[in-house]
Amino acid sequence: MIEVENLTLRFGGLVAVNDLSLVVRPRTIHALIGPNGAGKSTTFNCISRLYRPTSGRIRVLGRDVSGLRPQDLAPLGVARTFQNLELFGGLSVLENVLIGAHVHCGGGLRERLAARPPAVIGHVEHLLERVGLAEFRHAQASALDFGRQKMLELARALAIRPRILLLDEPAAGLRNREIGALDRLLNELVERDGLTVLLVEHVMQLVMAISHRVTVMNFGARIAEGTPAEVRRDPLVVEAYLGQEAAHA
Ligand SMILES: Nc1ncnc2c1ncn2[C@@H]1O[C@H](COP(=O)(O)OP(=O)(O)OP(=O)(O)O)[C@@H](O)[C@H]1O
């Protein structure tokens, strides 16, 4: 679903991503982990076209993305969420998801909100149920607590009916109960709906529970890859990131 080949990105003299290759297979949850500054977000931003790589190649759904703009990815079936939430705080929960649902139709914000075909509303209501926000559908997005705002961002991403979900730290700042709900939802999206998920995440509780594959980065490069159990035991990973405690967890 995603193929990253020899990706390098330099910011001036700093090599943020260094010759990174990785393959995300269909219907898997693939986590990108590593210490702060390892190059995870930069890799993510190259895949979602916010950054232009210095060299290397990225294919998404078999297509070279080098000529695409960030907004070209949604029509291809690729949705993303952001580490710093990017909601329309003044709009309702329902309207925020509606905006996502209309991505295929083009047009401005006003047109997207004005056109509310019943089928689209039905889909949006269904998504709000799935992320546990149905009862908040008419609340203003900015009035939700942080955990619910994160679920709203996820619902908006799902509204485009994506085949690939790119999630930037979906569990950051969530409480245990919320992480459990996210775990169940992501599993269901992959198992039942056939989505593919690539996530950058620091919350090991989630990564180790849900990932089929984990790529570990340090200093811009890949230092390990495997199942959660494999990377947890990898001495390089233990030294760079997880610590002895996680190795024995
Ligand atoms: N826009 C930028 N301009 C210059 N340097 C940058 C930029 N974005 C990231 N960097 C640098 O590139 C390196 C990799 O950063 P990146 O944000 O990709 O790491 P990360 O693994 O996502 O870290 P974190 O877990 O803290 O989010 C860091 O040294 C960072 O300071």
TrEMBL record:
InterPro entries: AAA+_ATPase (IPR003593), ABC_AA/LPS_Transport (IPR051120), ABC_transporter-like_ATP-bd (IPR003439), BCA_ABC_TP_C (IPR032823), P-loop_NTPase (IPR027417). GO terms for cellular component: plasma membrane. CDD domains: ABC_Mj1267_LivG_branched. The keyword ATP-binding applies. SMART domains: AAA. Residues 2-244 form the ABC transporter domain. Gene3D superfamilies: P-loop containing nucleotide triphosphate hydrolases (3.40.50.300). Signal peptide: none annotated. The keyword Iron does not apply. One of its GO terms (molecular function) is ATP hydrolysis activity. Keywords: ATP-binding, Nucleotide-binding, Transport. This is Branched-chain amino acid transport system ATP-binding protein. It comes from Muricoccus roseus.
